[in-house]
Design a protein that fits this description.
The structure holds two protein chains of two kinds. Chain A is of the alpha+beta class. In chain A, the strands form five sheets. Chain A has a seven-stranded mixed β-sheet, sandwiched between helices. The radius of gyration of chain A is 21 Å and the shape is globular. The chains are: A alpha+beta, B alpha+beta. At the A-B interface, loops of A face loops of B.
């Protein structure tokens, strides 16, 4: 442990007490993160039971993400270093991590995403057409979560119709992730393991083409000539679900919130849908949802002047990096086609970069284009202030209305 | 005759796919989503230089290097 040096500092760096786990008005988390980043490149956070180092600036965050030997993934959330829900392969380090990713990558590659396109498109259109005659909806709960849930099931070759049941479990898991209902989350975890277990049993009995069916391939998949255990397979399935659904819902929430409030930008995208992919990239830069990646310090290191000790927990500030003016000029401005937009860390970097990034981008582009073809004009249907969830950002709701 | 070389560092490339997205005429993706040039290099002709520069600049991991070849 590094000894406190003077009041309000630790190891020479400022101490912060801002709680990033709680709900706040929309965009307040970003304002707080921007403030912390400009205060110092490193801060000592003391708002959780286990204090940790915050790394706030782009260069340092990227470098640390690329140093898995020093910053290990035994911890993946700085605010909750002892996670109750099991996840894989997020918590592995190379070389074990690399081997498991090799088994998973092909199901989430651009080629796999292209194969899924007809289904993504048709389900997206159906969901929008279902909402359109109503003239209103809560975008978050009635569109933004339903769409990625179904696409997750489709990617794994599971029945899209199971989406309704999945949503109930998913909400419980997320409530547990962010500390609201740990018991409910454990229950949902058990139910989802049971669901995936039944699907795996089915594929053992009735195998499909292992080239195109995830579960058939996975029940026989090996790492180092050893079969992936059934338990690990269930954990992998639950992780893919947890990683893919909340984030896509959240991205859609922020994107629609922005487009509802910025008619000119909305019109530009409607007039030229080829801009959407670039707009999505900039949205992910400016409104990152996973605002930190946790890591565990594996060996004592003086990291650019920050005295980190083996066993310390570290917060790698993905969101503050994405909004760092040293890297992105006018970072608070939404600029479609900014020259270095591709360098954002919204999907992370290093060996743990988001497995589902290609699927996510594709879902977002299709959702934005298909929605605006059918519902080009809409407005926020409440005067109440909207809020965002802490922990991992997501709008709690986004009521929209449009003329029918 | 080309005077430039484009290389992708195997240890840094993480499969973000930005290079083949910005320069699809020059680079392609494999079944796992990595650029097929990962871990090797290719000569770049003058007519490919702009695409190669764009690919190098697009990489968030700084895995791509464009340099004068022999």
């Amino acid at each position: 442990m590094t000894a406190p040096t003077e009041a309000g500092t630790f190891g020479g760096w400022p101490v912060v007490h801002t709680d990033y786990r709680v709900d706040r008005p929309v965009f307040e988390h970003y304002a707080l993160l921007d403030g912390d980043r400009e205060a110092a490149p490193f801060l000592r956070a003391e708002f959780t039971p286990v204090p940790f180092w915050m790394v706030t600036r782009y260069e340092h965050v990227l470098e640390a993400l690329q140093m898995p030997d020093v910053f290990g993934s035994e911890v993946i959330n700085a605010m909750d270093p002892r996670m109750d829900i099991e996840v894989l392969p997020n918590v592995l380090n190379p070389p074990e991590h690399t081997k498991m990713r090799r088994v998973l990558n092909r199901w989430f590659s651009p080629a796999a995403v292209r194969r899924l396109e007809p289904l993504v498109l048709s389900r997206c259109v159906e969901l929008i057409e279902e909402l359109k005659p109503r003239g209103e909806c809560d975008l978050v709960s009635e569109f933004a979560i339903r769409f990625p849930t179904e696409m997750f099931l489709a990617t794994l070759g599971l029945p899209v119709a199971d989406g309704t049941q999945f949503l109930v479990w998913v909400e419980k898991i997320f409530a547990g992730f962010f500390g609201h209902d740990p018991q409910g989350a454990m229950q949902a975890q058990a139910q989802m393991h049971e669901y995936f277990n039944a699907a795996a049993d089915d594929r053992v009995k009735n195998p499909r083409d292992p080239e195109t069916d995830f579960m058939t391939r996975m029940v026989g998949a090996e790492i180092d000539s050893e079969k992936i255990s059934r338990h690990d397979l269930l954990v992998i399935c639950l992780t893919l679900m947890a990683a893919g659904l909340d984030t896509t819902r959240s991205a859609l929430g922020y994107i629609f919130y922005y487009l509802a409030n910025h008619e000119e930008e909305r019109r530009r995208i409607i007039a030229d849908p080829s801009l959407t992919a670039k707009a999505i990239e900039e949205f992910i830069r400016i409104y990152p949802l996973v605002f930190q990646d946790g890591r565990l310090v594996k060996t004592d290191i003086e990291f650019h002047g920050c005295p980190m000790k083996k066993g310390d927990v570290v917060w790698l500030g993905l969101a503050s990096a994405n909004r760092d003016p040293r890297k992105f000029s006018q970072p608070e401005e939404f600029i479609v086609g900014r020259p270095n937009a591709n360098h954002h860390l919204g999907f992370g970097a290093g060996p743990h970069r988001c497995l589902g990034m290609h699927l996510a981008r594709h879902e977002l582009v299709i959702a934005i284009n298909e929605w605006h073809k059918r519902i080009p004009d809409y407005e926020i249907a409440t005067t109440e202030p909207l809020t965002e969830r802490g922990g991992q950002l997501s709008l709690n709701k986004l009521p929209l209305r449009w003329k029918v | 005759m080309s005077s430039w070389k484009l290389s992708v560092d195997d240890s840094r490339c993480m499969g973000h796919g930005r290079c083949y997205t910005v320069s699809p005429g020059l680079l392609a993706d494999d079944e796992e989503g990595f650029v097929t040039l990962r871990g090797s290099s290719m000569p770049i002709g003058d007519d490919q230089l702009a695409d190669a520069e764009a690919a190098e600049a697009a990489c968030p991991e700084r895995a791509i290097t464009l340099e004068r070849g022999s």
